[in-house]
């Protein structure tokens, strides 16, 4: 029975993989066909074979770059992954804009408008818009916003001095987001003079190899907080498959990765959950919120990191005061944020649920293309005011944004 169940699961995975490849192939054929029409319009003697060879190479460059190639060709594979990542942004742009261009072409025909030069004019316009999209998206991805959330908690740790907590999620350190961007984050967080620094998952962009090769741990080592730096796992650490190596490396630079663990910090509990991915990729799954909080003194503040923004009701019921998540990137590229809004109770920003304060970050780095539209690279600054309920109204719990 178990064997049959495993076989069925494998068949489903294979079927899903085939369906995805088929859809990806059809989408890229649609984009490539329009690209060929424009190339043929501008360069009538162009070779169709050469065009399609180059186009398919670019279209599947990201997949090619992810293949575990021999060491001698890895630099070329990394180059392909970078090219492929930018193509992913171009593909999303094309999926939105090309159907609109086709629809306009049909409408002009119905209206009796001359369409002789339509391909050339529409193609040129779309290329200009694509350049604007890539430049604007790059600026949003690489220029960081610091968002400040004042959080009142009706609890005490024996002092009325606010706790300053610096939070970053979804760094996605790898071949695209590297030491330059990481160095800026370290400087910005240290400038806050935080009591605690929290990294809410997806520090890695799958593979640990570029993290080690580029000595990114040396940059992370520069993070300074009065009571320490803590992190949790995200889904991409699981995808990379090097969790022990990663957690050992982080431990060696003084950053503890909490895996269903609780740390008592300055009279406050820092709770770190394993990512939801553990439920399908680890035999033991992950502990419930109730199990993690069992035995804790809930008269003290409880701050929990859970990479994927789920389970708000449970966290509120169990006595968590602040829940920190990331994962969504707020869609990263519009209009994906319309999708993430429907998938999650809160896909970005701040939410008050009973006594629970939920903050979901759009992330510091990017997955795939270093492009953001209707989303920004961000760092979160929490100003946790203890015994402050009487001093703060609901309206006072707002967000202050600083552009850097």
TrEMBL record:
Q: Is Transmembrane helix among this UniProt entry's keywords?
A: yes
Where would I find the Calcineurin-like phosphoesterase domain in this sequence? Answer: 164-330
Q: Which Pfam families match?
A: Metallophos (PF00149)
Show the InterPro entries listed in the entry.
Calcineurin-like_PHP, Metallo-depent_PP-like, Metallophosphoesterase_sf
User: Which residues span the membrane?
Assistant: 12-31, 43-65, 86-110, 122-142
Q: Which of UniProt's keywords are assigned here? A: Membrane, Transmembrane, Transmembrane helix
SUPFAM superfamilies given for it?
Metallo-dependent phosphatases
Report whether tRNA processing shows up as a keyword of the record.
no
The record's listing under PANTHER family reads:
TRANSMEMBRANE PROTEIN WITH METALLOPHOSPHOESTERASE DOMAIN, TRANSMEMBRANE PROTEIN WITH METALLOPHOSPHOESTERASE DOMAIN-RELATED
Q: What is this protein called?
A: Calcineurin-like phosphoesterase domain-containing protein
Q: Which organism is it from?
A: Paenibacillus pseudetheri
């Amino acid at each position: 029975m178990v064997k049959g169940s495993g076989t069925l699961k494998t068949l489903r995975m294979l079927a899903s993989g085939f369906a995805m490849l088929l859809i990806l192939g059809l989408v890229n054929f649609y984009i490539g066909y329009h690209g060929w029409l424009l190339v043929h319009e501008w360069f009538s003697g162009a070779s169709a074979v050469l065009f399609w060879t180059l186009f398919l190479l670019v279209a599947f460059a990201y997949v090619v770059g992810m293949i575990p190639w021999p060491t001698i060709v890895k630099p070329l594979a990394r180059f392909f992954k970078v090219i492929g990542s930018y193509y992913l942004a171009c593909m999303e742009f094309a999926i939105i804009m090309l159907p609109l261009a086709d629809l306009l072409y049909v409408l002009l025909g119905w209206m009796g408008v001359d369409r002789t030069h339509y391909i050339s004019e529409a193609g040129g316009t779309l290329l200009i818009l694509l350049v604007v999209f890539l430049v604007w998206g790059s600026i949003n991805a690489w220029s960081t916003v610091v968002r400040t959330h004042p959080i009142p908690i009706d609890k005490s740790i024996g002092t009325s001095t606010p706790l300053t907590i610096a939070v970053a999620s979804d760094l996605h350190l790898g071949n695209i987001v590297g030491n330059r961007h990481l160095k800026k984050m370290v400087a910005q967080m240290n400038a806050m003079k935080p009591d605690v620094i929290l990294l809410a998952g997806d520090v890695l962009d799958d593979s640990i190899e570029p993290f080690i090769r580029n000595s990114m741990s040396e940059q992370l080592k520069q993070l300074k907080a009065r009571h320490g730096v803590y992190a949790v796992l995200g889904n991409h650490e699981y995808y990379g498959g090097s969790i022990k190596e990663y957690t050992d490396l982080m431990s060696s630079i003084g950053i503890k990765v909490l895996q269903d663990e609780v740390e008592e910090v300055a009279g406050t509990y820092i709770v770190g959950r394993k990512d939801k991915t553990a439920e399908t990729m680890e035999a033991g799954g992950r502990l419930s919120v109730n199990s993690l909080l069992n035995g804790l003194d809930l008269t003290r503040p409880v701050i929990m990191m859970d990479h994927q923004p789920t389970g708000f009701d449970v966290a509120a019921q169990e006595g968590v005061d602040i829940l920190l998540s990331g994962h969504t990137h707020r869609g990263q590229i519009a209009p994906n944020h319309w999708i993430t809004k429907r998938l999650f109770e809160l896909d970005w920003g701040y939410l008050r649920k009973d006594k629970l304060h939920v903050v979901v970050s759009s992330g510091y780095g990017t997955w795939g293309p270093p492009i953001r539209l209707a989303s920004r690279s961000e760092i979160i600054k929490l100003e946790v005011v203890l015994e402050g309920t009487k001093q703060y109204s609901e309206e006072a719990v707002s967000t202050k944004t600083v552009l850097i």
